[in-house]
Structure formats: structure tokens, C-alpha cells
Design brief:
Blueprint lengths: L1 H23 L5 E5 L6 H17 L3 E5 L6 H8 L7 E6 H10 L7 H4 E11 L1 E5 L7 H10 L5 E4 L5 H13 L4 E4 L3 H9 L5 E4 L1 H9 L3 E6 L26 E9 L4 H15 L2 H10 L2 E2 L4 H22 L5
Parallel strand pairs: 1-2, 1-3, 6-7, 6-8
Antiparallel strand pairs: 3-10, 4-10, 4-11, 5-8, 5-9
Helix pairs in contact: 2-10, 2-11, 4-12, 7-12
Keywords: Receptor, Signal
InterPro entries: BUG, Bug_dom1
Family: Belongs to the UPF0065 (bug) family.
Length: about 325
């Protein structure tokens, strides 16, 4: 009997210790390793959110930028860290749902090594054309693509990028065929569109918005279920004569190493959601055309799985592959 009493006391002690640890989390600075470069939209927003979260929990949220190598530098840095709730990874849906279908070989299995901690935002893509383009609707672009099969060009920021995969989806749903012209980075893509070097590209309010406001490009439609606040004069792709319910979006979330204490993930998710509702953060998001994603880690996992299945089909149909 004494033995079982001791076991019960020990279990009670462990339970109390874990509860105390959860209540005290975080008791030191938290590091966010990001795959995005300093000064980019995702980085700027994360710093804004991190500042709010830091004040809420009384600990610093430190940004660690590790851009490049398809985001793998950031992934590797977090993989080498303890799964203790003090190191998180900021990535977008291409890292979570697309790369495993594109690359023949990867140095990690993202969805086995990581789990969602908290969502941040999503943003949808516009169809971007030169300001002097003769097309005034998505229907005009589709008609031209069918008339000149294989002659039209679209740009993206690399083979297998969201812009490339999105265009492949667009081609499949409109029964058209166009030529892909990859560029080395985002600014080059939209400069090429503005200069008429290519016919069109997908772009977000953050990436193509500056040239749109400068009247060097125009938006034919947004690949979203509804119009975007701040761009309410731009119809959805469906409204503009494109495929019904056509949507292309990217989302950004925070992931944790598998094995991270659930209490730490729950706390970080809770505090981040509070920060995302802050008027200052929401104003910052609207500047970039970001929509706050106010949900839980389980919903992020479901969305990632749905997108993975969708991307797998598109990649196979378009015969995309990267060594």
C-alpha cells in the first residue's frame, strides 16, 4: 500500500511541476527563426506581432532571419534546437504543402519533423498585367491565350514557386497553354510585367502593390472568394470572366518542432491571437494586403493537408520537378 501511495504522491508532484512550468512559460526570451529576409512583409509583420506578444508575456521575442536555400536554412536551424517552446519557425504554405511534391530529394520531412503552433495571416494573388495592356478583364486574357495558344508569357519568381504553380492551375482550369518565364526574385518579376517583357504574372498587394499604385501595372482580378479591402474596385477572378471559384493564396504560420510541450504551443497560440487582433497590427496587415488568420493549430494542419493534396495534383499534371 505504501508503494502505491508513494507512486501517487510522485505522480502528483510531477503534475504540479508541469502545471507550474506551463503557468510560468515563457520565463526567458523566445526565438522566431524565419525563412524570410529582413525588411520583407512577413518579417515586418512578425516583428510587429512579436513586439506585442513580448509585452503581453513579459519576455523578448527575438527574430532570427535565415533566408535562402528554399527556406531550408531556417528549417535546419530550428531542427538543431531543443523542442522546448523557446524556438519557433516562421514559414509559408510552400514549405509546408508544396515542396515535398516538387523536390526529388529533401533533407527533412517537414510534416513529420514539425507541427503547427499558430497561424498568422493569408494573402491572395492578383493577376497583374502591364498598365498599357489591351486586356481589361480576366476573360480578355483567357480569350487571347486561346487565340494565341502557347504564345503568351507569364512570369514567376522561380520554377515551382507559388506564381508558377498558380499559373499552372490557371492554365488547367481555362484549358490554355502559356510560356513560363522564371526570374530570380520578386522585384524582377513585376518590373518585367511593367516593362512589357512578359504578358502577366500573379502578385500580391505586398509584392505588386507599389507598381500598381504607381500606375505601372494594373490588376485584372484577385484570385479569392471575395474582393480585398483597399482594392474593392478590383473584381475577383470569377467576377472578371475567369474560372468559377478560382483561388490562389499563400499563408504564413508559426511551426514548432514535434515534441514541443503542448502547454507552450497553446500559450504561444493564445498570445499571438491576442496580438493579431490589436488595431496597430491590423493596420500594419492592411498595408500589405494581409488578412489575419484567427484560428488554432489543428485548423492550420487541416488547411496544410488540403493544400498538399491540391498541389500534388497540379505538380504532377504540369510535370514540375526540381533536383
Amino acid at each position: 500500500m505504501r508503494f502505491f501511495t508513494k507512486i501517487a504522491l510522485f505522480c502528483g508532484f510531477i503534475s504540479c511541476a508541469l502545471n507550474a512550468q506551463a503557468q510560468n512559460y515563457p520565463d526567458k526570451p523566445v526565438r522566431i527563426v524565419t525563412s524570410f529576409s529582413a525588411g520583407s512583409g512577413p518579417d515586418a509583420l512578425m516583428r510587429n506581432v512579436g513586439d506585442k506578444v513580448g509585452k503581453q508575456v513579459g519576455q523578448a521575442i527575438i527574430m532570427d532571419n535565415r533566408p535562402g536555400a528554399n527556406g531550408w536554412l531556417a528549417v535546419d536551424a530550428v531542427k538543431k534546437s531543443p523542442a522546448d517552446g523557446y524556438t519557433f519557425l516562421q514559414v509559408d504554405n510552400t514549405h509546408v504543402s508544396l515542396q515535398q511534391h516538387l523536390f526529388k530529394k529533401m533533407p527533412f520531412d517537414f510534416n513529420k519533423d514539425f507541427e503547427p503552433a499558430t497561424p498568422l495571416y493569408w494573402t491572395n494573388f492578383f493577376i497583374v498585367v502591364p498598365a498599357n495592356s489591351k486586356w481589361n478583364s480576366v476573360g480578355d486574357l483567357i480569350a487571347s491565350a486561346k487565340e494565341k495558344s502557347g504564345a503568351l508569357t507569364f512570369a514567376s519568381w522561380g520554377v515551382g514557386s507559388a506564381g508558377h504553380v498558380g499559373a499552372a492551375m490557371f492554365e488547367a482550369e481555362t484549358s490554355t497553354q502559356m510560356n513560363h518565364i522564371p526570374y530570380k526574385d520578386l522585384p524582377s518579376v513585376y518590373n518585367a510585367v511593367a516593362n512589357g517583357e512578359v504578358d502577366w504574372a500573379f502578385g500580391t498587394a505586398a509584392s505588386a502593390g507599389p507598381l500598381y499604385r504607381a500606375k505601372k501595372v494594373k490588376f485584372l482580378g484577385i484570385a479569392a472568394p471575395k474582393r480585398l479591402t483597399g482594392y474593392l474596385d478590383i473584381p475577383t477572378v470569377s467576377e472578371a470572366g475567369g474560372p468559377k471559384n478560382f483561388e490562389l493564396k499563400t499563408w504564413v504560420a508559426i511551426y514548432a518542432l514535434k515534441g514541443t510541450p503542448k502547454a507552450a504551443i497553446d500559450k504561444f497560440n493564445q498570445e499571438t491571437l491576442i496580438a493579431l487582433k490589436d488595431p496597430d497590427v491590423q493596420k500594419n496587415m492592411s498595408t500589405f494586403g494581409f488578412e489575419p488568420w484567427l484560428t488554432n493549430p489543428a485548423e492550420v494542419a487541416r488547411e496544410a493537408e488540403l493544400q498538399s493534396k491540391k498541389f500534388e495534383i497540379v505538380v504532377k499534371q504540369a510535370k514540375m520537378s526540381i533536383e
